[in-house]
Design goal:
This protein has one domain. Strand 1 and strand 2 form a beta hairpin. By secondary structure, it is of the alpha+beta class. Helix 1 packs antiparallel against helix 2. Helices cover 55% and strands 34% of the residues. The protein has a two-stranded antiparallel ribbon with strand order 1-2.
Length: 73
Amino acid sequence: MKSITTTIGLILILLGILTFVYQGFTYTKQEKVAQLGDLNVTTSKQETVHFPPLLGGLSLAVGIVLVVVGRRK
């Protein structure tokens, strides 16, 4: 049980750090605008996903607590 708690805590710490370093990511989405016979008209649209800093902070804090609890047992 000790190693599972510590492992989950370390993963949450890593995710919390990554959330602070990479505050989001952008991807390109292709959308179909119209179709005229065999001709397809598409457009590229950039979408951005933001990670809230609160999510990173909570992940980091819970991860630290889990590591401390896992090491004490």
